[in-house]
Amino acid sequence: MIAGIIPARYASSRFPGKSLIDIQGKSMIQRVYEEAAKSKSLNKLVVATDDKRILDHVQSFGGEAVMTAENHPSGTDRCYDALQQLGGDYQYVINIQGDEPFINPTQIDELAAILKDGSAELATQMIPVSNYEELFDKGEVKIVLNNKMEALYFSRMVIPFIKGVDEKEWHKHHTYYRHVGMYAYRRDVLEKITRLSVSSLEKAESLEQLRWLENGFRIKCVITHFESHCIDTPEDVEKVLRRMGKL
């Protein structure tokens, strides 16, 4: 069984209370919840929050929510807190980003499909890079893979370097992928990774998943063609609406 958990904390440094902002008549968290609820793969869906305003709001539109501790350093830790409260025999947890109001439920099903045989420890998604600008954007995290479609490394820099080729042509000579940040955790692995100390590579790149790799965990990567449309700042709301053709 798979539990979908949507972490939603109130005190975002760049956009406090963003879960509750109105996007064309519905809050962001309601839009995320309603789209995720259309997934065919989830046996449970719950919002994990640290704020009673979010809890009450989710319950007001018929959603399920649980209160978690305020001091969790990441959404991963908040997911584990919520899982412990849920009980039940959930083998996997899918961490659904609470700041992507136009997530496609099929994207959740794509990630869930890799979990069926129970062998995946961790899983995430990626999308092919098609142009130079995207490849060299340090805000886009690139993934290096082994031949089992498992992550060898995540970086904000471009890896691999292609010798003897103009960097503007690199994407034509190697298949690069960028990370789309939805995670699946096997229950036993989720418990273990929440106990790990922050690692040196994680500090360097500011990427939590490097801590897992440094400690020997395997991250399966699944190709998706659904774009990620996150809202991190007030300015992002209009940008996302325009990109999604809502304006």
What characteristics describe this protein?
247 residues, alpha/beta, Spore Coat Polysaccharide Biosynthesis Protein SpsA, Chain A, nine-stranded mixed sheet, 9 helices
Please tell me about this protein's structure.
This protein is of the alpha/beta class and 247 residues long. The protein is built from nine helices and eleven strands. The protein has one domain (2-241): Alpha-Beta Complex (Spore Coat Polysaccharide Biosynthesis Protein SpsA, Chain A). The strands form two sheets. Strands 1, 4, 5, 6, 7, 8, 9, 10 and 11 form a nine-stranded mixed beta sheet that branches. A two-stranded antiparallel ribbon has the order 2-3. 36% of the residues are buried. The model has no long low-confidence stretch (mean pLDDT 92).
> What is the makeup of the main sheet?
9 strands, mixed
CATH architecture assignment: Alpha-Beta Complex
Based on DSSP secondary structure assignment, what is the total number of beta strands? 11
Please state the structural category: alpha/beta
Q: Classify the fold: give the CATH topology.
A: Spore Coat Polysaccharide Biosynthesis Protein SpsA, Chain A
Write the layout of secondary structure elements.
Elements: E1 2-8, E2 22-23, E3 26-27, H1 28-36, E4 44-49, H2 52-60, E5 65-67, H3 75-86, E6 92-95, H4 105-113, E7 122-128, H5 132-135, E8 142-145, E9 151-155, E10 177-186, H6 187-193, H7 200-205, H8 209-214, E11 219-223, H9 234-243
Parallel strand pairs: 1-4, 1-6, 4-5, 7-11
Antiparallel strand pairs: 2-3, 6-10, 7-10, 8-9, 8-10
